[in-house]
Here is the input.
Amino acid sequence: MASSEEIKEEVNTNKQDDNKFRIGEFVFDTFHEYRDGQEDLKKIECINNELDIHDPKVAVRLYNMIRTGEIVFKSPIGDKFYAHIADIVADKSVGLIEVNDAVDEAEDKTKRSKIIGIVFIGLAVIFFAYFGIAEISDMVSTRKMAQLQNEKSNYTKTDDSEVKSQVTNNEIAAINSRVVDPKTLTILPEYQPYLAQNPDFVGWLVVPDTQVNYPVCQRQNDNDYYLNHGFDGKEDSTGTLFMDYRCDYINPTTNTIIYGHNMNNGSMFGELKKYLEEDFYKSHKIISMDTLYEHRQYEVVAVCLSEVQYQDDNNFRYYNFINADSPTELDAFIRTIKNLSVYGSNIDIQKTDKLLTLSTCNNYTEDGRLFIVAKRVK
Here is the structure.
């Protein structure tokens, strides 16, 4: 059985192969199985850091905690670790393998185990307190957003095929190429109250069958403010969906980027991970992104997993692609998303398309990102 350090080293070289996820020697068919494997690996690392698993008494105690369900593993990685602990018990603790008696004896005589238990209890109290406060904060944020949603007219999901058949490619190209004078525009009636509440309000995003049904803000020269401020301007760890300040929503740049937190309760962009399920991706291609002045719809063309690049990396950064100053720059972006796409490289993007990118965190890897690319179709 490889140690957690060896597994972790193998994880750093992981690559997706044929839409499967890999951790070392283990291959997972689905993203959810892959996440279970990651969680098991973290538990194993914690155990190895805190305990000497080669100590016979510790090994027996650990063996029984796993056997009785006090410690739960959900993946083949955990199963293999359990088998490894069983081997240690068999090799070094033959005299202790009378399980119940050995555990009692170990609990009575091992002060270190007691200390670790107290530490774990203390940490558990801290964690419960922290997450309890976070949960209350999330509930307050969710209620605030629900109030904003109730003020807006109900959204009805449009059939994907209906949207695609309504506008021809030539018509879309004509829409994308036009230049609009902002002075000639009129704010849509349903969005006037939101602009009155927040002058940074620029539009409304809806992703059907998710919690994404939120206002979108844009703050001049600032991509940090709405990471920790609500729509009402008050500090809020949930934040608000916001458009990259470098984008123009009236006369759109090649790519409009909207950011949002990946919240555990599914709010903000927490449910964009549904697009990692192929059936959901195929049946939810059309999303709505209205501006203050018009209703717009986009077709999802790519679902991608990436990570934040370091300063000295030369890799193409999708989150810095705002406007294609040349065909070469657009080609580089298309190549990038083909390489990062979860569902293969058959991605239909033309040089006349206007793109919308939804970006959020994803812990499939350190500093991981999930981003969804869509093109305007209405």
